[in-house]
């Protein structure tokens, strides 16, 4: 992970595992938590931009190779810990976080963008929650926040098909605020951050808190439980193995 101050008040955090398309393992989640909490506690920092390194991905999801051999209890814990350290943490930060989606934002990657306060996309971005194609469900808040952003019907379709949508469709769905040429994405994120930073940081923090207060928390607990439950299935073992072996899974529903 690379932390860079773009100005006195604006920080860019780049997730830096390009060989694995910036997949989120526990170490990266812990590092992000540390960097974001430092930004949150620093009164000088008034906005944060999140981006993925390399040309291909924002974040291609949670690290499948890390969790594929987990037990249901470990799966549930992975989801709960991740939600606490990163996804809920970001959502509740008083320092606004802008997700600059510079490529694939899949699974945990889209979930991190959904937890952020503003989402902007490059024309090359592709977004989706493909977890059911691995025999599991979104476990970092995706079953809750996607519906909050784009409505239950569209969220249901995206999660059940596991299909990716492109940046234009994401814009039409209201999932991203703007779509810009790839090379202009960071400039657009800076411009958006500057517009935010003209306003009262105290009022911004309170506005975030008030907006978040509209949404209940029960569904997130259910999601972690069901995420763990999926780890007990044959389909989960088959789906994750098929991903690593680069073949189509043969699901049986067991
Ligand atoms: N976890 C671990 N490794 C991943 C990964 C992930 N989520 N996504 C990509 N990688 C790795 C690949 O295994 C590959 O590694 P090796 O070179 O060591 O084999 C490397 O990144 C490059 O990826 P590809 O060769 O697959 O690149 P591609 O251009 O052919 O395909 C892609 C790109 C369509 C994004 C494809 O990589 C892909 O489908 N990735 C997985 C997406 C996914 O299913 N995400 C959801 C994860 S589950 C989750 O997030 C659960 C949750 O909610 C908590």
Give structural attributes.
254 residues; binds acetoacetyl-coenzyme A; six-stranded mixed sheet; 48% helix; alpha/beta
Helix-strand layout with pairing:
Blueprint: E1 2-5, E2 10-15, H1 26-41, E3 47-52, E4 57-59, H2 64-67, H3 72-92, E5 97-101, E6 104-106, H4 108-115, E7 118-122, E8 126-128, H5 142-150, H6 152-161, E9 165-166, H7 167-172, E10 178-180, H8 185-197, H9 201-212, H10 218-230, H11 234-244
Parallel strand pairs: 2-3, 3-5, 4-6, 5-7, 6-8, 7-10
Antiparallel strand pairs: 1-2, 8-9
Helix pairs in contact: 1-3, 3-10, 4-5, 5-6
Acetoacetyl-coenzyme A is lined by residues 20-21, 23, 60-65, 104, 106-108, 111, 130-131, 134, 138-140, 142.
What does this structure look like?
By secondary structure, this protein is an alpha/beta fold. It is 48% helix and 16% strand. The strands form two sheets. It has a six-stranded mixed β-sheet with strand order 1-2-3-5-7-10, with helices on both faces. Strands 4-6-8-9 form a four-stranded mixed β-sheet. Strand 2, helix 1 and strand 3 (47-52) form a beta-alpha-beta unit. Helix 3 packs antiparallel against helix 10 (218-230) and helix 5 (142-150) crosses helix 6. The chain is globular, with a radius of gyration of 17 Å. The chain starts with a strand and ends in a 10-residue tail after the last helix. The mean pLDDT is 98.
């Amino acid at each position: 992970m690379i932390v860079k101050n773009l100005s006195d008040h604006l920080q860019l955090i780049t997730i830096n595992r390009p060989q694995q398309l910036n997949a989120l393992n526990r170490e990266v989640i812990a590092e992000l938590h540390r960097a974001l909490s430092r930004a949150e506690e620093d009164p000088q920092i008034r906005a944060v931009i999140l981006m993925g390194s390399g040309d291909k991905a924002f974040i291609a999801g949670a690290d499948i190779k890390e969790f594929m051999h987990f037990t249901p209890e470990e799966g549930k814990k992975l989801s709960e810990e991740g939600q606490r350290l990163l996804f809920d943490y970001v959502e509740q930060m008083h320092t606004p976080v802008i997700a600059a989606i510079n490529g694939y934002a899949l699974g945990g990657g889209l979930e991190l963008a959904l937890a952020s306060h503003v989402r902007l996309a490059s024309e090359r971005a592709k977004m989706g929650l493909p977890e059911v194609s691995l025999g599991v469900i979104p476990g970092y808040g995706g079953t809750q926040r996607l519906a909050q952003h784009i409505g239950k019907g569209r969220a249901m379709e995206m999660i059940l098909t596991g299909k990716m949508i492109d940046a234009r469709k994401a814009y039409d769905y209201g999932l991203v605020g703007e779509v810009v040429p790839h090379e202009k994405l960071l400039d657009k994120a800076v411009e958006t951050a500057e517009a935010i930073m003209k306003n009262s940081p105290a009022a911004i923090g309170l506005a975030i808190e008030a907006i978040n207060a509209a949404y209940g928390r029960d569904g997130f607990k259910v999601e972690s439980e069901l995420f763990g439950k999926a780890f007990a299935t044959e389909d989960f073992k088959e789906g994750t193995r098929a991903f690593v072996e680069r073949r189509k899974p043969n699901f049986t529903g067991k």
